[in-house]
Amino acid sequence: MTIETRGMTVAVAATDGMLPFEFSLACEVFGDDAANLPDPWYRLVLCGPGPVRLGRFLVEPEQETHHLARADMVIVPGWADLDREPPAALVAAVCAAHARGARVVSLCTGAFVLASAGLLNGRRATTHWAHAGELAARYPAVMVEPDVLYVDSGSVLTSAGKAAAMDLCLHVVRLDHGARVANTIARRLVVPPQRDGGQAQFVMTPLPEPGNHPLAELIPWAMERLDQPLSVEDLARRAGMSSRHLARHFQAMTGTTPLRWLLTQRIRRAQELLETTDDTIDVIAASTGMGTATTLRRHFQRTVGVPPDAYRRTFRIAPGAGR
Questions:
Q1: Burial class (CB in 10 A: 0-12, 13-18, 19+), 33
Q2: What Rg, from alpha-carbon coordinates, does the chain have?
Q3: pTM listed for this prediction
Q4: How far is it, in rounded angstroms, from Cα 195 to Cα 207?
Q5: Are strands 156-159 and 143-144 parallel, antiparallel or unpaired?
Q6: Which range (81-95, 134-148, 168-182) has the least confidence?
Q7: Other beta carbons within 10 Å of 44
């Protein structure tokens, strides 16, 4: 599908219940107040049913919701209350825009609006990692990819949560105006022009809450020994139970197996060391029980989606800087 991009009209949907962060990102990237950008730039218009509240902010759209159908590109920001169906007028306008050939973009949980409109059926799509399972369960015809920053399916594009909305907006600019212009926007906003990997590099597997459960003492014990080659048998022996019994408790408390949990904690520790130290990959491999740099790189790439070196370049914390 070919879309004329020069001077295209970009309509951002605005209705009660949308998330202001993603809304403002779209306005910042596609707004017409940026200097040193191609002329004509995008023509941005806000469309909604009237004054609407986005979090603590009151927004006055310039056009009614049905004007979304006339745009060249429609952007649907995050949808806050997933238990509430999006307005019928919004769904109808998004469908009409897509039917006449517009590019439709959702940011974060805006994917639920697109799914409600049927635009994601049979397509790959993503949303915030915390809601990806719900999107897949509620709309089984959607091929949900929970670990990516965004999905470009041609005329329909979806982003993961929060800051991934910026990744998708810059991707759209890159498609329309090239890398140089996208880089100019990124520099102005002080963000990376293009990030590697997916949501996995930002998702941490939670630890069980402290309390009276079978793993209460085992979890801290194991966390203090991540530099050692622990096995399931070691964990079971420490917990005073069989390996099978241990596996059942781990599945119930963490949603995964003991070995998978242990690997996740080693990767988490490696991430912290990459962010906060100048240790070599070999040293970090030893400190996290991975053994060799080759093993660390293999598991890190598979789990996080980027190599350790790329992760360090993105997240390195300067000495003395606050977290």
A1: exposed
A2: 23
A3: 0.69
A4: 27
A5: unpaired
A6: 168-182
A7: 21
